[in-house]
Amino acid sequence: MKKKVYSLISAMLISVAGLFVLTGSYFLINKPEIPEELRTKKAV
After folding, report:
1. d(CA 8, CA 14)
2. How far apart are CA 32 and CA 17, in angstroms?
3. Rounded to an integer, what distance in angstroms lies between the CA atom of residue 16 and that of residue 19?
4. DSSP string, 1-17
């Protein structure tokens, strides 16, 4: 029983870590920038 719980926890941790790695590499590759019009526009 304990072995199943540990494997479940480790699988969840691995999936969360993979998600962080994938989103991090996505932002590093694409480098999203805020358009000029959104930067200069003042909040009304």
Report:
1. 10
2. 22
3. 5
4. -HHHHHHHHHHHHHHHH
Q: Is the pTM of this model over 0.85?
A: no
What is d(CA 11, CA 3) in angstroms, rounded to the nearest whole number?
Answer: 12
Q: How far apart are CA 41 and CA 39, in angstroms?
A: 6
What is the pLDDT tens value at each position of the chain, 44 positions in all? 999 999 999 999 999 999 998 888 777 777 767 777 776 766 55
The two three-digit tokens of residue 21, written as one number: 């790695």
